[in-house]
Write a structure and sequence with these properties.
Blueprint: E1 26-30, E2 35-39, H1 41-47, H2 71-79, E3 84-92, E4 95-107, E5 113-119, H3 127-140, E6 144-149, E7 154-157, H4 159-165, H5 174-179, H6 185-193, E8 198-206, E9 209-221, E10 228-236, H7 238-266, H8 270-285, E11 289-297, E12 303-312, E13 328-329, H9 330-333, H10 337-342, E14 347-350, H11 356-363, E15 369-377, E16 380-389, H12 398-433, H13 439-467, H14 478-494, E17 501-507, H15 510-517, H16 519-537, E18 550-555, E19 558-563, H17 569-584, E20 587-589, E21 592-594, E22 598-604, H18 612-628, E23 634-636, H19 639-665, E24 706-715, E25 721-732, E26 736-738, H20 740-750, H21 753-774, E27 782-787, H22 789-792, H23 797-808, E28 815-820, H24 821-825, H25 828-840, E29 844-850, H26 857-860, E30 867-870, H27 872-876, H28 885-897, E31 901-904, H29 910-918, E32 923-924, H30 935-943, H31 945-952
Parallel strand pairs: 22-23, 25-27, 27-28, 28-29, 29-30, 30-31, 31-32
Antiparallel strand pairs: 1-2, 1-5, 3-4, 4-5, 6-7, 6-10, 8-9, 9-10, 11-12, 11-16, 12-13, 14-15, 15-16, 17-19, 17-22, 18-19, 20-21, 24-25, 24-32, 25-26
Length: about 950
């Protein structure tokens, strides 16, 4: 058996775990052992087993057996990295099953040779076995699944759905009545008619009460009759909905407490401070009334309450001015409340759960739920802050009570401070009159004042700490980090031999963790990462120290490390390697293992930075370089990288300037005429029978740094120019002609690709209109324009195309739009809808560079495409011995089977042209015919088309 010439990388089963999510059956055949080495979940389901070990012996066929026909050719193709298509047969449920598979050579454990096999077509099997599999899947599903006939009558529902709803409704339209509201009924039916999935989140009445469900409704087949059916999948998302609401309420409440605290600290007097604080807290808590009640004793020592401050929402009656609420007795009206509040406990409950006397008192004010937080001053019960909800029977959560408890403490502090200030003022007034007599009292008052000042100093220190530290990880924040970096930079300026480094860390795929496991897990992960970084660098928490390395969280999932007084670059590299190693171990968070890694950028102070901020900037830049090279690695910033960044930045600025200047020169799109043949041509336009019409628009070309070049597309049967592909060019004032590969990606990132692409489409259609009027004998003549992925995803693309076709007078059938595979496959449903709208306008749709992107044959037949373009990389490798001819032949055959035309790009030799003609390729373009030329030269090609193209294309044409 020959040795496969494959990559040195060896696959292991852990790396293949991600393939379990695919619906295609995939397995790996061990050529040395003649057995299956690994299989994904879809393959195991296909075979009806739970693992490879459960597969009975003798049920496999080996298409790569040494006695098989053509085995040496197959192995030779696998050795060269070519995909081989084979028919694979195996036993399923006692019967032979055959499936068409794509096979690729790989290496597996111990360096052995293997074949990666992917099923490409549906497996043909007995009807009753397929039905058994379908039922088994339904029984084992953890989501709710229901199947309905086309008229809405229920066929079946799985056990999970029965537990949710009980026995289903067997009447017509049952699925529509259960899962779709009346307002969404037409939308759901329209969606199913198009073959799409109707998805929505709605509240459902279940046996467990009203629950939130995520519902998917799609077309299916009845497994028994084969008739059209409706399949409904449901998932209970009630907990997710409730958690989102609780998180939003918590954040709003925290913000309200912060604003209330700010009001208490900054308002000029106590009354204004508490009024503002109550308003902030009432709005944040979403209640109808917030008030402050002071406790006092009557002459009979009865505990009474009076409302001192109150805030009420819109439409709520105030209780503060009512006399009965200024002398309300605890014992008579709210027995037991005084003792509870004195013990420092909150009271939060629904009014309907209270005793009759309590309920009557509160219901008379329209209160349905109430929360009471005690306020203590100097360790004694002073009163309470209350929150009333007059519209809902609200159940207060522990989080809400905890947050509002902190607010009550802040209000108590403000009252205590006010009392202390009032008391101090009284003492000072008395001391002025009787200084000698009140010396002892003055000293006591001063002692209390010093204690309050000390407490205030602690609060200010806490605020100062919060201003310079990250609230989540307790690491220093960006502000404090930049202060420390500036100090190190100053030390470096004073001592040229002093070396330090900045490491910029960014977690890899942190957004996936947040989206899949929740922000709570994400926050916990950040805390754990901060702790590991501290331990790895032996850094003490909270603050920076002069001779200690510094760690900071800059925000989100970004961290920065300042390595002080290092000897060489290798020190920074060793630190980066230690960080990678410490983060390799999994994190145990909320009972599950979470894995992550970081990309690290390193910038050294030895480059002579003029500003400390530039080190952090360059470390950030090179961190993205590390991500681009594969993540979980570190890179060092160098001069060449800086030059590349500066050049790209300058190129971006020049691109913006060029586009801006072009817009200023002409805000209205204008047509212009291509020139008539030059003086070197003996034949004039009139002699050639070419008409130059008088067009109803301006014939002056718009001055701009951007121009269009046109490459002819030639029919390989007639040798005629069928049309042109319009290609954008940028004439840079300093760099000359900038290749599209350098500035198109910048235009994509900056958003300029949308207006620039619109200009290209209009300009190309204008030129086509001119050629159609000049050369009526060459009709139909077309123009092809490339659409970027960003253009294709714009909602106004159709309106733009309609407007340009109307302005230029071009029929849709004369326009070809070339779209890349990635733009279509990224969002197939949206792409299909957009392509269908373009097809309604008779626009020719072409998939550009076919074979270099996703190349998913399962997707290709779904899209209404007219043309496939074979990428130049395949055409260029068509050699004398037919290298790559099989791929080109496959693409041509596939296109013909799907009713598509084929255009070959990059044709440069006569041998390539001859091979393409033999393979049945309809059209081609490339330097063999003509390079991309400006509109004047393209006009000359049309004038000379009968002579120039005939010489280059040798075809068998009928005589006479």
């Amino acid at each position: 058996m020959p040795q496969l010439k494959l990559s040195d990388s060896i696959l292991n089963r852990q790396e293949l775990a991600s393939l379990d999510v695919l619906v295609s059956p995939i397995w790996i055949w061990d050529l040395d052992q003649n057995q299956v080495w690994w299989a994904n979940a879809a393959a195991l389901t296909l075979w009806g087993v739970k693992s490879i070990a459960k597969r009975p012996e003798g049920t496999w066929s080996n298409p790569f057996d040494e006695n098989s026909s053509g085995i040496e050719l197959d192995l030779e193709q696998l050795e060269q990295g070519t995909t081989v298509v084979k028919q694979w047969t195996f036993q399923a449920d006692g019967e032979p099953v055959s499936i068409r598979c794509a096979c690729s050579g790989i290496r597996i454990e111990s360096g052995r040779m293997g074949v990666l096999v992917e099923g490409m077509t549906e497996v043909m099997k007995r009807h009753d076995w397929e039905l058994w599999r379908s039922n088994e899947v339904l029984k084992q599903a953890t989501v709710m699944i229901s199947l309905y006939k086309a008229d809405g009558t229920m066929v079946m529902q799985n056990p999970v759905a029965k537990r949710c709803y009980g026995e289903g409704n067997r009447e017509k339209n049952a699925w529509k009545e259960r899962f779709v509201q009346s307002s969404d009924g037409e939308q759901a039916l329209a969606c199913l008619e198009k073959g799409n999935v109707f998805y929505h989140e709605t509240q459902m009445q279940t046996l467990q009460g009203v629950r939130w469900h995520a519902v998917e409704i799609r077309n299916a087949k009845d497994p028994v009759t084969g008739d059209r059916a409706i399949l409904v999948n449901e998932k209970d998302i009630t907990e997710l909905k409730e958690a989102a609401v609780q998180l939003q309420q918590r954040d709003r409440l925290l913000e309200g407490v912060a604003l209330a605290t700010y009001a208490l600290l900054t308002a000029p007097n106590l009354s204004e401070a508490i009024s503002k604080a109550l308003a902030e807290l009432g709005n944040a808590a979403g209640v109808d009334r917030a008030y402050l009640v002071e406790n006092y004793q009557s002459l009979t020592e009865e505990h009474l309450m009076r409302i001192c401050w109150e805030w009420v929402g819109e439409g709520i009656t105030s209780s503060k001015e009512k006399p009965e609420f200024q002398t309300l007795s605890y014992e008579e009206n709210l027995p037991g409340w005084y003792e509870t509040l004195c013990a420092g406990k909150a009271i939060g409950l629904r009014v309907k759960d209270l005793s009759d006397n309590e309920r009557r008192l509160l219901e008379a004010q329209g209160i349905q739920s109430i929360l009471i937080m005690p306020i203590a001053i100097e360790g004694r019960f002073w009163g309470f802050i209350g929150f009333n909800d007059c519209h809902h029977q609200r159940q207060w959560s522990e989080t809400e009570e905890s947050i509002l408890k902190a607010a009550a403490g802040s209000i108590g502090g403000a009252i205590a401070r006010h009392q202390a200030e009032s008391k101090l003022a009284t003492l000072n007034a008395q001391l002025e009159a009787i200084v000698e007599e009140r010396t002892a009292k003055l000293k006591a008052a001063n002692d209390r004042l010093r204690a309050e000042i000390s407490e205030k100093a602690k609060i200010e220190e806490k605020l100062r700490h919060n201003a310079f530290h990250d609230a989540l990880t307790e690491l220093p924040n960006r502000t404090l980090f930049m202060q420390e970096l500036r100090q190190e930079w100053e030390r470096g300026k004073q001592n040229p031999n002093y070396l330090f480094a900045v490491l910029f860390l960014d977690l890899d795929r942190f957004k996936v963790i947040n989206d899949s496991l929740g922000h709570g897990v994400g926050d916990r992960l950040l805390i754990e990462i901060a702790e590991r970084l501290r331990k790895t660098l032996a850094v003490r928490p909270h603050s920076f120290r002069r001779n200690e390395h510094a760690i900071a969280r800059l925000g989100g999932d970004e961290f920065a490390i300042l390595l002080k007084d290092i000897r060489a670059l290798r020190t920074a590299r060793r630190v980066a390697e230690r960080i990678h190693a410490c983060l390799t171990r999994p994190f145990a968070i909320e009972g599950q293992e979470v894995f992550t890694s970081v990309s690290i950028g390193i910038a050294l102070s030895s480059r002579g930075y003029e500003r400390p901020e530039d080190l952090l900037r360059d470390a950030d830049i090179v961190m993205y370089r590390a991500k681009a090279l594969g993540r979980s690695r570190h890179e060092v910033f160098d001069t060449a990288m800086h030059d590349r960044v500066v050049r790209l930045l300058k190129l971006e600025n020049d691109l913006r300037r060029a586009f801006s200047e072009g817009e200023k020169r002409s805000t209205n799109p204008r047509f212009y005429l291509s020139p008539t043949p030059d003086s070197q041509n003996n034949e004039s336009a009139e002699e050639l029978g070419i008409q130059t019409p008088s067009l109803p628009f301006n014939s002056v070309k718009k001055p701009s740094a951007f121009t269009l070049h046109y490459q002819p597309i030639v029919c390989l049967k007639t040798g005629r120019i069928e049309g042109f592909e319009a290609l954008l060019r940028w004439e840079h004032p300093e760099l000359g002609l900038v290749p599209p590969g350098e500035f198109i990606s910048i235009a994509e990132e900056t958003g300029l690709i949308a207006p620039l692409g619109q200009w290209v489409l209009r300009e190309a259609c204008q030129q086509l209109r001119i050629w159609q009027d000049q050369f009526p004998q060459l009709l139909p003549l077309t123009v092809a324009v490339n659409l970027s992925g960003r253009q294709f995803s714009r909602v106004d693309l159709i309106s733009q195309v309609d407007r340009i076709l109307a302005e230029t007078g071009i029929e849709g059938s004369m326009l070809k739009l070339e779209i890349t595979e990635s733009a279509i496959v990224d969002n197939p449903e949206l792409a299909t809808e957009m392509l269908l709208q373009l097809k309604q306008r008779k626009i020719n749709l072409c998939m550009d560079d076919f074979g270099t992107g996703y190349s998913s044959l399962s997707y290709l037949h779904q899209f209404p495409l007219d043309t496939l373009k074979i990428d130049r990389s395949f055409v260029n490798r068509i050699g004398v011995e037919g290298e790559n001819s099989e791929i080109v032949m496959t693409i041509v055959s596939l296109a013909h089977d799907l009713g598509m035309e084929v255009i070959a790009e990059g044709v440069e030799t006569s041998a390539q042209l001859e091979k393409l003609q033999q393979l049945g390729c309809a059209m081609a373009q490339g330097y063999l015919f003509s390079p991309p030329v400006d509109s004047e030269q393209a006009t000359q090609l049309l004038i000379q088309e009968g002579k120039l193209v005939t010489k280059l294309v040798t075809l068998d044409r009928p005589t006479g």
